[in-house]
Amino acid sequence: MKVALATWNGRISPVFDVARQVLILDVEDNRVVARHEEMLPGTEPQAQAGRLASLAPHTLICGAISQSMAGLLATKKIRVIPFTAGAVEEVVAAWLAGTLPNPTLAMPGCYGRRGRFRGPGGGRGMGACFGGRRTIM
Q1: Stated pTM of the model
Q2: Phi first, then psi: what are they for 70, rounded to 5°?
Q3: Which secondary structure element, helix H or strand E, spans residue 82, and what is its range?
Q4: How many domains does the chain have?
Q5: Does residue 13 lie within any of the structural domains?
Q6: CA 40, CA 135: separation in Å to the nearest integer?
Q7: What is the per-residue pLDDT across 66-97, written as a single tens digit (0 to 9) for each?
Q8: What is the pLDDT of residues 32-50, one digit of tens each?
Q9: Which of 4, 29, 32, 39 has the most CB atoms around it within 10 Å of its CB?
Q10: Is residue 116 in a domain?
């Protein structure tokens, strides 16, 4: 199975819609058997989604993503695990362990109360992160 991670400076890219790079993992029996980086256009949504689809990942792990982009990827049968944050290797380890999505690797505000202010979700669930859905598709 192929998994794509939107990356930037060794971390999950904060916004997939303008991400310029993905790490592609070939995973077999919960082990990474191959990995390589690919460039994305980082521009027009159709081009971004089309380039990712040409790499044939089953799943995309990314930071923030617009609902329109998530919809484009869903039409291309790419499962999205959005609002993920952290160091790439830490996220890869969590994916292999089957623990994504994970509150410790979520963007701020996406899993309940993380600080003094409760935000749109009132401290419950994922706040404004796609109305509480943890994966798309």
Answers
A1: 0.84
A2: -60, -40
A3: none
A4: 1
A5: yes
A6: 22
A7: 999 999 999 999 999 999 999 999 999 999 99
A8: 999 999 999 988 999 999 9
A9: 4
A10: no
